[in-house]
Records
---
Amino acid sequence: MDETHAPDAKPLRNGTAQPRALPSARPPGAARRRAAFPSSPEARAFRRRFFPEASAADWSDWRWQLRARIRSLDGLAQVFSLSEDERAAVARRQSGLPVGITPYYASLMGLDDPAEPLRRTHIPVGQEYLRLPGESDDPLGETPDSKVPGLVHRYPDRVLFLATGTCSTYCRYCTRSRMVGQPGGEEGISTRNWERAFAYIAAHPQIRDVLVSGGDPLTLSDDKLDYLLGRLRAIPHVEFIRIGTKVPLVLPMRITGALTRMLRRHHPLWMSLHCTHPAELAPEATEALTRLADAGIPLGAQTVLLRGINDTVETMRTLCRGLLKRRVRPYYLLQCDPITGSGQFRTPIETGLAIIDGLRGHLTGYAVPHFAIDAPGGGGKVALVPDHVAGREGDDLLLRNFEGRIYRYPDPGGRTGARD
Ligand SMILES: *Cc1c(COP(=O)(O)O)cnc(C)c1O
Ligand code: SF4
């Protein structure tokens, strides 16, 4: 019974950011059929305009979406009115992070506005070629921390398993742009290296937690992913498995009934979703998140803080509330890594702190992510918290609340807040 309801879960249709509506009526008997993935009127209009040869069934087929990705200057120019800067930057690209945008994700973007947030994260501009002081191709030192190719073991209890080098879309600020989307799956980020990774994890009983990432693991076939999760589950000391993915936001039709049925066989399984902006929370993504949540997968969100894209309290409030409404817990707000070419995206640290301050007290704590910097050189994530200790008077700790008012907490003998 519960096997059949997930693929047909009703969309929430409560998008706060994107007032797109799905058709309200479902055909009778839709609950039992393997319904095609629902598509909003805006997406349908986009398909007819730019992909007239594609049927509705093509559009809702994730493999069609991958095949039809916009990857070239010509492809971009057919859909977007490109700025000179964008045009030159795409034409100049010879190696490095490819361009890749699913038609579905393109349908959410501003076609005529180069400043539109989602577009800015996916269409290169000239600044991408600028290397500022402190920037590097592997700022987190993941390659030196790789114990076997594709497995980063930095923290005592957990590993980052880079399962594939492929993504469905390529984010210009990607921390792993040195390895994702490259021909040949260089640095060994490919299924060929899985066995060595399994052996390493099996040989290290201190590893209780495996974060399966990449690339994007949900670009793998159901069978491959099933195999991967099954192998990890078979290691007795592995307790916690997470998948890190952007697919539910950029390729929501990937979340099929078959996929959720397979995933739930590997419980307890968690998912970390890479979300950028409330414009991603379209009805299709809402449907994908509903299916995942209905499959019993606890959902968390990781957002990279990006200048001019999501760096205001207002945008982050909308995003965090929209996520919570869709049963996704905002988990990390990550300071943008100093990857080569990221100067256009990076914000001063105080921006992130001010955003957290603007969320706390105004939204439930469930909607407030941890603000963290991944320390360059392999230090791991360091969480930064706005300072609400206002000082100390004798045995009283002075606290500043979200409105800026001062409150006292009796803390006899304590030292917190004392000056010296
Ligand atoms: C982010 C990360 C993890 C997971 O960290 P959590 O704080 O548990 O989410 C694990 N390994 C590496 C290398 C990471 O970058
Ligand atoms: S989805 Fe993640 S791994 Fe893929 S390009 Fe974007 S940031 Fe990089």
---
Amino acid sequence: MSEVKPFILGKLTWQEAKTLFQETEIAIIPVGSQEQHGPALPLDNDSFQAQEFAYLVADRLWPKIKTAVTPLISYGVSPHHMPFSGTITLRSETFIDLMVDVGKSLAKHGAKKIVVMNSHGGNTAALSIALRRLHDEEGLWCVVMEWWKLTADLVKKTFDPPHFHADEMETSVAWALGQRVLDEKRVDEPGREPVPGFTKPTMFPSPPNIMPIWDTTDFSDSGTIGYATRANPKKGQIVVDEAVKRMVSFIEKVASLN
Ligand SMILES: [Zn+2]
């Protein structure tokens, strides 16, 4: 989505931003990463997805429910991908400080509810610390929204496991959102297990699962963990459509909270 939309905070003047924060208490912060996504997806994939989802949702809500979409946080916590060229990671401490500073700035301008549109699983732990601080120190209502969790039922029905990284699930969703996909370069790598039987690579662990601190190279040589050759933009679109629908309906409810 390249047009200028009235919810894109970075495209507003300060006077327009002032008006927007008089009309809404909800800020959406897209958060991604700059990290390897196997041979078929670019490094910006998580960031691209976060921004696209944020824009799609804000656009669907406008003007009934107005939100302010902040500039993308394009770096995340990705030390586990550092063996792969082009990956840039923040330390968790830096990322937490960054999120807290962004949240405090938004609070100063009138935001009371922070919705983080996160597209990188490696950010989740640090986000919960940052948002806890914003909740406790600024009185902000905070939530993290992650498309794969919000649509886990549909994701499991639509895509083959492992549901992890640069796999059928992620490649299909990225493709549907308009990402650059090098389709001839897609590979399948189901993923080695560091401790066989206990450490399945998946976003949806079921027992017995004990995940040590891991590096991508524990699972994969190519950076893909899953079956990227099975990816398909039509299947991705099914999940994108449902994710947007559920995100919109969630934010409608958030807007009505006092
Ligand atoms: Zn990703």
